Backbone:
């Protein structure tokens, strides 16, 4: 019954696309209701036990963090259009994008890079806009950087979002002095020259700098350094972070990438904290490429099933990456003081034909949403040490939440995945034990077909996230918790094809639908459609 329903919807896909939007939404909702009703009688193959009597660590809200770099149209056109733009804006920040990001409850934004951070000189981005220096963005295409978006504009963005600020300082082409002066400009409430300059530029009170990153990818674009060389530089820079006591940022060292643990180990072994030196976190980067090869990464859409599988399978390598680095942290920092910060992650595809290679603009499909949700589930497993992650990047770059085209804007499937998982920000992790679930197999390889995560939300409700990674087969799941489940409600995301995506002409092809379920004999039976994500609040 389940597979009949899903294959029929594939066959009728073409004529369905021709229906007007309202009729399509109606049929989509109807088919989902039918799907859940008809399938609730089927036999449960997978069982999920929620151990809500054993809540674990808090899932830091910043695990759902964002990253915005001066790259392509990530800032200019995506977030910032300028006061004089015909695109509706408030003091230069686009209203539509801001509203969508507010709805997402973005907890933290990392800025200004990325590779760009190590060539960014903060003084270029302050003062009257018509007097700001035009520079060249040598990291990303050599385009002219107007510096219209600088320190004041960034803080206006995070303050309007209600998000924490994560500022990455320039180590590669900067100096401890330049960093120290920027920190003073941002945080000092004194009558010193830098605080007065900030006031003269329109900001009376200091800003709250929650996180300070010391350089970026020191092993590569940040200066091609060895861990030994960078660790010494880290100590040098971090010693000169002087802020008022009530505005002390969490200080994060630039770490390794992929499976490496050497950077984590070296930093922990050689940075000894003192009254002048702190190490609060180590950053790490991991990007998912469908093929695993930088020379031919794979397409964002129109990919074969084999690449659906390889992309999801490669993204799950994050579990091993986090486990091995956390092992090193647990050995060398038994007080569990130093956090792990995965401050760049996400998919990276080949740029579409004809598109600028340096803009890193890519489409975003249902595959990205499923991949994001799989990452969230793994992140929750490491809640004790993982203090932040930042998907790359927020708007128009790599795996973004939002795409813009002039005045048009669309929300990507990844946006919807982040939106579905909002209740997990600050929730206490609850073990979700999956039993009996089959694998989704491709040849000799397999990944779990069903992934589950659970959390006790700050509203007191028990939330469950479920993913079906299989491209064609639904799964019947029985859910139990420590007390009977009377009902559940939430939202589900799926799409008509593996690469279902939104376009400017059809921005709502992929969007969540609501789901209401009733418990039976204390348990909950869910028929999870293929290639779907479901987040439920259980009562
Ligand atoms: O996110 C794009 C780039 O990827 C960042 O600038 C860099 O840190 C990483 O290599």
Residues:
């Amino acid at each position: 019954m389940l597979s009949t329903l899903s294959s029929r919807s594939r066959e009728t896909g073409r004529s369905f696309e021709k229906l007007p939007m309202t009729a399509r939404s109606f049929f989509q909702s109807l088919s989902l209701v039918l799907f859940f009703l008809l399938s609730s009688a089927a036999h449960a193959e997978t069982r999920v036990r929620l151990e809500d009597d054993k809540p674990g660590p808090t899932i830091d809200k910043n695990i759902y963090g964002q990253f915005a770099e001066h790259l392509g149209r990530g800032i200019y056109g995506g977030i910032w259009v300028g006061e004089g733009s015909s695109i509706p804006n408030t003091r230069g920040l686009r209203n539509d994008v801001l509203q969508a990001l507010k709805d997402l409850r973005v907890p933290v934004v990392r800025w200004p890079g990325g590779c760009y951070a190590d060539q960014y000189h903060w003084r270029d981005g302050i003062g009257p806009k018509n007097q700001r220096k035009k520079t060249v963005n040598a990291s990303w295409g050599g385009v002219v950087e107007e510096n219209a978006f600088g320190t004041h504009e960034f803080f206006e963005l995070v303050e309007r979002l209600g998000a924490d600020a994560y500022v990455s300082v320039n180590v590669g082409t900067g100096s401890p002095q330049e960093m120290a002066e920027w920190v003073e400009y941002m945080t000092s409430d004194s009558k010193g020259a830098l605080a007065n300059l900030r006031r003269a530029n329109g900001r009376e009170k200091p800003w709250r700098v929650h996180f300070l990153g010391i350089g970026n990818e020191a092993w590569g674009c940040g200066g091609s350094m060895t861990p030994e060389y960078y660790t010494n530089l880290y100590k040098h820079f971090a010693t000169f972070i002087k802020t008022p006591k009530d505005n002390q940022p969490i200080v994060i060292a630039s770490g390794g990438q992929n499976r490496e643990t050497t950077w984590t180990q070296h930093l922990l072994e050689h940075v000894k904290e003192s009254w002048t030196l702190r190490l609060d976190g180590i950053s790490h980067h991991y990007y998912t490429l469908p093929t695993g090869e930088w020379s031919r990464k794979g397409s964002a859409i129109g990919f074969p099933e084999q690449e659906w599988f390889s992309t999801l399978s490669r993204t799950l390598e994050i579990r091993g990456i986090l486990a091995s680095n956390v092992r090193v942290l647990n050995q060398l920092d038994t007080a569990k003081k130093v956090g792990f910060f995965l401050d760049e992650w996400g998919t990276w595809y080949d740029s579409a034909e004809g598109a600028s290679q340096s803009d890193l603009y890519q489409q975003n499909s249902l595959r990205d949403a499923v991949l994001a949700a799989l990452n969230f589930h793994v992140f929750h497993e490491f809640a004790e040490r993982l203090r932040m992650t930042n998907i790359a990047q927020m708007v128009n770059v790599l795996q973004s939440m939002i795409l813009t085209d002039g005045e048009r804007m669309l929300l990507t499937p990844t946006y919807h995945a982040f939106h579905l998982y909002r209740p997990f920000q600050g929730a206490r992790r609850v073990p979700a034990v999956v039993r009996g679930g089959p694998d989704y197999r491709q040849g000799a390889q397999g990944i779990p077909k069903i992934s589950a995560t659970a959390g006790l939300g700050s509203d007191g409700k028990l939330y469950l996230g479920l993913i079906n990674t299989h491209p064609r087969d639904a799964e019947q799941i029985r859910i139990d918790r420590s007390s009977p489940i009377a009902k559940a409600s939430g939202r589900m995301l799926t799409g008509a094809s593996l690469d279902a995506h939104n376009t400017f002409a059809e921005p709502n092809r992929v969007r969540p639908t609501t789901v209401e379920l009733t418990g039976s004999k204390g348990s909950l039976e869910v028929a999870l459609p293929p290639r779907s994500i479901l987040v439920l609040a259980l009562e």
In short: The two ends are 28 Å apart (CA to CA). The first strand starts at residue 46 and ends at 50. Confidence is low (pLDDT under 50) at residues 1-24, 37-42. Residues 21-39 form the longest helix (19 residues).
